[in-house]
């Protein structure tokens, strides 16, 4: 059996970059699907010409030829059945040599060019849909495709058609019924720019519904040794799932608090107020004597090109580095506030991509040779806030407010 593969994540910006790997995966699946013998569904091939000539199919026929079917309600609460079928479906049984994380030995896997038909409750025929389905195979031993129930208010039922992408994740493609038609949905970034029709979620219960028209996905990242949760909000007008929040967690349990978007907004709020996020009592401009009266003395020190910092836990108070501790006056002002982001279970884990998405285009980005890293910087009224990291792919390790 194969080992867990790295799921390269999972931001909407990155999803479009997985296309080549997706095609390679499809090619690998093709070997599994086509080498074990084939068998069409009863009557499917004979019905092909009839289906192509007609826009509707009797529901009795749809039930007999469909590989998958799902009850779904549209945005008005009307109930439909979505039938997924292929006129030329092929069957294979996975052998021991062909087994991988997406198909165990003995699994029955079907493949074909799948289409959808939509039948309204009580009607005796279903209408073939024009939407293109991103589905190439169905493993009957897995539940990669499923209906996510709506919230009864701002989000109707959603259909996710999925295929295995490895031991950690499925590739998922969302669909919705509106105005009596099945539509595909696009994942978009925080600004609403469409990125991809493909999402990533953990196999089995890797997507849940939230209130306010939102859904949340979960997937494990081997590289980050954490679960990545991403939240999207449905916009029926644009047929998109818009990215509205995300976070990394050690635990795979669904988070009950806001994610990186809210946290970064709070950091920017602290920068605008010129206060230390972990202790708002400490402000830029207050004196060394005032800091000592609140936090006491500390022997923990470090310095950079501009400031000498005195450390308290993970927080750092920066003073003019031309003055050593012996010559620093009680009236010496605080000029910088910093704090380290650790990698422990309860520490915030932020990636540079998250900073750029939730705070927008940086004022500047540059290398920091003195610290052998990189800096993302944003100006704010009367100051700035910076985020430091070692290299692309590594998390933010320090935040500084000036």
TrEMBL record:
InterPro entries, per the entry: TAT_signal
Name of the molecule in the record: Tat pathway signal sequence domain protein
Organism from which the protein derives: Saccharibacillus alkalitolerans
